[in-house]
Design a protein that fits this description.
Blueprint lengths: L4 H12 L4 E2 L3 H10 L4 E7 L3 H14 L8 E6 L4 H9 L10 E6 L2 E6 L9 H15 L5
Parallel strand pairs: 1-3, 2-3
Antiparallel strand pairs: 2-4, 4-5
Helix pairs in contact: 2-4, 3-5
Length: 143
């Protein structure tokens, strides 16, 4: 059963107010991935849990201050945006469903998956560092 929208609105806006695209349907997720097929794209599965609030969302935002980062970033909310989240998850069937989590795609193909355990008990700085190491491996360096 989905969470009430009024409850999760601030959790959504923490990312979307900072330039992250919100995807609620499978069609939106497919179109987003297709429009970024020649780039590096990151999808964030957002969540209501404490590790999402304390580590994941702030760490993701901190990681995006890096010079090397994905070209496009989108999000869907676990339990509410089930179509977009399930579509993204279907592209990496070997990865167990996890929220929060992060999927990175390069040229439309999955290249990295960051599961919940990376965020649990973590701090924004450790999350940012983990993601920035993934960006260094998969994202195009500017300049």
């Amino acid at each position: 059963m989905p969470y009430p929208e009024e409850m999760i609105a601030p959790m959504r806006s923490e990312l979307t107010d900072n330039g992250v695209t919100e995807l609620r349907t499978a069609d939106q997720a497919k179109a987003w991935l297709e429009s970024n097929k020649d780039k590096t794209a990151m999808f964030v599965v957002n969540s209501v849990c404490g590790c999402a609030a304390g580590a994941a969302r702030p760490g993701i935002l901190l990681s995006l201050e890096n010079e090397v980062k994905p070209d496009a970033v989108a999000t869907g909310f676990a339990g509410n945006d089930t179509e977009s989240v399930n579509f993204i998850r279907s592209l990496v069937p070997q990865a167990p469903p996890s929220s929060p989590s992060v999927y990175i795609f390069k040229q439309g193909k999955p290249v990295a998956y960051v599961p919940r355990h990376v965020f649990e008990g973590g701090h924004p700085e450790s999350v940012a560092g983990h993601l920035q190491r993934e960006y260094e491996k998969h994202c195009t360096k500017v300049g």
